Amino acid sequence: MNEVIPVITNAAATILAALISLLAVLSTRWINTLTEKARVENAKIEDDHFRALVDESISRVDDLATKTVTQIEQTTAKTLREAVKDGKADKKELEELGIAARDEIIDSLSEEYKKALMFAVGSVEDYVTKAVETKVYELKNGIFTVASLETA
Question: Is the full-model pTM beyond 0.85?
Answer without folding.
Answer: no
